[in-house]
# Entry
Amino acid sequence: MTDKRIDGGVAHTLYDRLRRDIVFGRLAAAAKLPLGELKESYGVSVSTLREALNRLAAEGFVMTEGQRGFFVAPMTREGLRDIAALRILIEGYAFEKSIEHGDTDWEASIVAAHHKLHRLEQRMIQGDVSVRENWKQHDWEFHQALIAACGSAELLRLHQTVFDKYLRYQVRVLTFRGTLAAQEHKDLLDAALSRNVAQGADVLRRHIDGGVEHSLAHWGG
# Structure
């Protein structure tokens, strides 16, 4: 008899792999996801593959079209603006709650996350694009640290989904805003440590909106 816990673990691992491959563009936007090819590529059963793809479809990373099967969700300019607006709302609210309730351990985690991000930002500014994927990972970790004290596991899960959808667009245009983005991250750190809710909200909005406009300016195609 198959251990359902093993099956569940395989499906969850596959879900994580597929989601990351979609976010980082290894599975292109709007591309068809043929089950036969994916079964061979990821080394899983079709039933496990369907389970992971249906989960991704529920979160908006994948689309289903009746008998035509599964497709990677497309990306549009309007979609970027929509997801950015949603991120501002969710992350802004969670950041405000974290500023109000975060303790010294929260502060220490933000400082540590910012230090790691800053080191990679400096390498990116100097032209080292080999650290690009690690840089985006540390970018996510810093923003996650900023809201970690919000007090809601559901809010954190929702933010992760929205952040990953936003990240898809950043990856698509292959751009980095350099010293401006790095300074905004420093300003977010300062707002958190000084418990300045208004400053944090203002910087976060400028940071996300700036990323949107930068991405659209380099959209191409």
Q: What stands out?
A: The chain has a mean pLDDT of 91.
